[in-house]
Design goal:
single chain, mainly alpha, about 70% helix
Length: about 160
């Protein structure tokens, strides 16, 4: 594991800031939408709240894993630190895909958090690309109105890769 404490602190602060922004956005959306019944329509209040919850949870998990890696490093447990850093660097589950559920325009804090993570350079490059796609989407795309078309598109995309 790298031991540049300045860089470790920078990464940790960015992960924390992104998580805090998303948590704040979650609270704002809860106040705006109030209690919402289950609704499977992309961009609905329920899906928007679920999306921001997914984004925030992904950042919370990444931050915990990163902090554990740093802790192992400080303790001199380099093998464990390296393994945990590898786990922390994996593409975060539900980031940025949580945004696919959310109504547009995305909230300012959601956009800022996504840009912070995109620009961090800590996660695989595919995370930055997916973030740009999610930020550019003019409307919520998940869950799809037509599941068959959605599955065909996913299958076609995977065959091209």
């Amino acid at each position: 594991m790298f031991h540049d404490m300045t860089e470790l602190a920078r990464i940790g602060r960015v992960l924390e800031e992104a998580h805090s922004l998303l948590e704040g956005e979650h609270k704002r959306l809860e106040r705006e939408y109030g209690p919402t019944p289950y609704d499977a329509v992309a961009g609905s209040p329920a899906q928007t709240l679920r999306g921001v919850t997914d984004l925030s949870g992904a950042m919370a998990t990444a931050l915990k894993q990163f902090a554990l890696a740093v802790g192992y490093s400080v303790l001199g447990l380099d093998e464990r630190a390296d393994r945990m850093l590898g786990v922390a660097r994996m593409k975060p589950v539900a980031f940025p895909s949580g945004a696919d559920r959310m109504a547009r325009p995305l909230g300012e804090d959601t956009v800022r958090a996504m840009e912070l993570i995109r620009d961090l350079g800590f996660f695989p490059e595919e995370t930055a690309v997916a973030t740009d796609v999610a930020l550019a989407a003019p409307q919520a795309t998940y869950p799809p109105a037509d599941w068959n078309a959605y599955e065909r598109e996913r299958r076609d995309r995977s065959e091209r890769q």
